[in-house]
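writing this on my phone so excuse typos. first protein, seq and then structure
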Amino acid sequence: MVGKQGRVTGRIGPGLVGEVMVPVRGGVEAFYAHPSIPDEEISVGSIVVVVEYFPPRTVYVARAVV
């Protein structure tokens, strides 16, 4: 999971549990997402990279550099 890119489908920010769609096992799955940098907000549609994974469905993400 760490290092995979995903797309934000539910806004991520302080006090919010966002949602990210990440490609897994030939499909795409939803994960609960938190920002890796405290107080950062990431809007819907942004591309992010998973920096931490907590099974079964929680990830911490950072904005992808494009």
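second protein below, same order as before
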Amino acid sequence: MNFKSVTSSLGYCGLIPIAAGVALTWWNLETSFFDGPTLFVGYSALILCFLAGAIWGRVLSGVSSRRGSLMLIGSNAIVIIAWLALLISSEFFALGILILSLGYVAILVGEFRFAKRLMSGVTLDYLQLRFTLTILICLGHVGIIIAYV
């Protein structure tokens, strides 16, 4: 199994809890432990934080610069925003989901903008995968808002 297939497989498998959250919400199903919206928003915030943290590793393995420092600060801001979106979603679900969606877009824009200069090992294949996964996760966010409202 090569690196490209592992990253692609993990990325697409990571969408399963997103799809499950949307499906549970659409069909108004819940378990004794969680419901669709709770599963969705919790997992979405978790993955957004994971992506923000992954920026740290890529930036730190590259060349130190002012832009690198800004990327590190930005990734920390995304984590705080994801946490706030998680808190907000308990009272204002659609707003929390919208904020999470914007976090995914912000990370994608940062990765595309600074990939060559700041993040070592980022390939065009990876950026294409990230673009596709971001589109799919944002569609999940739209789906959960429609189902919830």
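The chain has one domain: 37-148. thats all i got for now
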